[in-house]
Amino acid sequence: MTIPRLIRFNFFTVIFIFSACVTVADMPLTRLYAPANKNRVAEDYQVTSDGGMVVAAHPLASKAGVLMLDKGGNAVDAAVAASFAISVVRPQSTGLGGGGFLLYHEASSKHRRVFDFRERAPRKASANMYVDEKGEYKKITFNGKLVTDPPVNGHLAVAVPGLVKGLVEIQKELGKLTLAEVMAPAIEIADKGFPVYRAIASEIVDRQEWLRLYPSSHKIFFKDGQPLKEGELLVQKDLAATLRQIAATGSKEFYEGSVAKKIVAEMERGGGLIDMTDMRSYRVIERIPVTGHYRGHQIVSMPPPSSGGTHVIEMLNMLETRDLTDIHPRGATYLHLLSEVMRRAFADRAKEMGDPDFVSVPTARLTSKGYARELMKTFDPEHATDSKLYAANFPTGESQSTTHISVIDQWGNAVGTTQTVNYSFGSCVVAEGTGIVLNDEMDDFTTKSGGSNVFGLVTGKKNDIAPGKTPLSSMSPTMIFTDKGELEMVLGSPGGPRIISAVLQTALNVMEFKMPLLEAVHATRIHHQWMPDAIKVEAASLDDDTRARLLSLGHKLAAIESIGDVQAVQRLSDGGLVGVSDSRSDGKPAASPKR
Ligand code: GLY
Fold first, then answer.
1. Nearest CA to ligand 1 atom 1
2. Nearest CA to ligand 1 atom 4
3. Distance between CA 122 and CA 125 in Å, rounded?
4. Are 24 and 540 in contact (CB under 8 A)?
5. Which residue's CA is the nearest one to ligand 1's atom 2?
6. Is residue 271 part of a domain?
């Protein structure tokens, strides 16, 4: 059963209040797993190897990646194979109609590179494209139905997809295998189908209002008029054919040929803006990774137009100004500090962040130690800071949107890639005849003055829509190295703004609290995004005293089902690898033996 969002808030609020009566302070961390999957066995989510490791949010995707390592492919081949496969098995999260970021570490040269293949605004897009003269969303209809929230639902929500060009170009430059080899598993899964699992079944139900509206989507995700159920087979023949075309011709067909024409025809059917010029002119951008240091570790992550890497480093810098030696990772002192650090970083996100090709973003200042010290001057251990917020929507569920893949190969090369169609099933529009779910990445722009996006995030002028501009992201594929540059960990997560919090806390659990990776990934998380001014807390994670203390400091608390879905690989000092998938969702690591 899927609980509608509004009711879900109340339901989990009740659970949260009830669970706060249970003392969990001394519970081992293994008891503090995310509530959604608390019955699963933690050890199912951990794999060790002395060869290579692929960790993705679906076992078929991890397996596709490991097949490439077994064939002699490298981390890039594995990551690209896993990416195409996850596009097939998690259409609610990512796909050929979306985009992403990829961070690459080459073991031999210690060279790190980042690639931006995120969606871009179509050339006909403009700052006020969604609003009328009163500043309200325009009334857009499809087949006579009002399309509410047009930056999230329907054709006008779609930005120019970048995933295919990104994966094809990166694999061509850095991979060892052929494109056809790395795409073979995805084609097979799309062609033969895979059993619908709990999360995708419930997301189809959650998004059925829109998936039903568009006939091209309805015919894929419904059977006899009903949403596909757990255990039924999801076969995607059109998607298999599109994947075959890409495997045979590279990205040309997709951006200039028959696939591009079908995407543009779909846009014309529903008032979307993307035209052939937009498709033809799409470019992948290589950027310079953002880097920082935290107590003997180097942090390397995604720069703007993601806010993720910058704010992970900004928050670590703030935390480094405090001695955390004897602090308890579940105690009020730490959670207060963490929330205050998040509040400050997210306030900067709203004010300073946007596409650096269009606006100036002060990344160097935001990631400097001096700036972190400045920010912490207003930190009060006895009081929560006032975010001066106004009322805003506060979504409570962790949607199934976005996904992350972490890979380390047998030579020590590493890839972290986070990919998305934005909200669950993106715009809910499938381009007829392609099987491609089109993104709704336009919602990551500021679409309405003073409004918030589907994640309750407020962004500013720097993130206004402009033709060809990239919407601000939170995706944070991140690597951690020793100060000597030895790779220690690759990690990332979905979750909109909660990506940043999930990556930060998992990294801190390893670097600061020395937790084994399994515990680090599964310890409960909090999230504060400045506005709305409240700490989101995973259900059942706070004991009575901690909760009371946080309230007495002036914090507001809000329950959330779960925060993030981390996929991580750690390299231990003996060279062995540990891969961990987050039991908050459906992932499973896969390992390749040393050869
Ligand atoms: N679409 C979510 C993000 O990029 O942050």
1. 422
2. 473
3. 5
4. yes
5. 496
6. yes
Give the total residue count for the chain: 595
Q: What is the pLDDT of residue 6?
A: 28
| Residue 545, both tokens | 């005293």
Q: How far is the CA of 306 from the centre of ligand 1 (A)?
A: 8
pLDDT for residue 58: 97
Residues 6+ apart with CB under 8 A from 218: 211, 212
Q: What is the pLDDT, as a whole number, of residue 388? A: 64
**How far apart are alpha carbons 576 and 137 in whole angstroms?**
53
pLDDT in tens, 95-153: 999 999 999 999 999 999 999 999 999 999 999 999 999 999 999 999 999 999 999 99
pLDDT recorded at residue 494: 97
What is the Å distance from ligand 1's center to 441 Cα?
A: 7
Contact 251 CB / ligand 1 (< 6 Å): no
3-class secondary-structure state, position 538? strand
Whether 563 maps to a domain, the answer reads no
Q: What is the pLDDT of residue 35?
A: 43
Question: Is the minimum distance from the CB of 463 to ligand 1 under 6 angstroms?
Answer: no
Full domain range(s) for residue 88: 59-100+115-283+408-446
**DSSP one-letter code for 462:** G
For 368-404, letters b (16+ CB in 10 Å) and e give: beebbeebbeebeeeebbebeeeeeebbbbbbbbbbb
What pLDDT does 2 receive?
30
Among 366, 301, 349, residue whose Cα is nearest residue 507 = 301
Ligand 1: distance of its center to the CA of 23 in Å? 35
How many angstroms does the Cα of residue 182 sit away from the middle of ligand 1? 26
Tell me, what's the pLDDT at 467?
98
88, part of any domain: yes
Ligand 1, atom 3: closest residue by C-alpha = 473
Q: Supply the pLDDT for residue 433.
A: 98
Active site residues: 402
Rounded to the nearest angstrom, the distance between the alpha carbon of 471 and the centre of ligand 1 is 8
| 78, part of any domain | yes
Structurally, the chain folds into a number of domains equal to 1
How confident is the model at residue 400, as a pLDDT?
67
Q: What does the H/E/C string look like for 176-189?
A: CCCHHHHHHHHHHH
* Nearest atom of ligand 1 to the alpha carbon of 497: 5
Ranges of the chain with pLDDT below 70: 1-43, 388-400, 539-540
Q: Is 457 in the pocket of ligand 1 (CB under 6 A)?
A: no
Amino acid at 346: F
Is the CB of 97 within 6 Å of ligand 1?
no
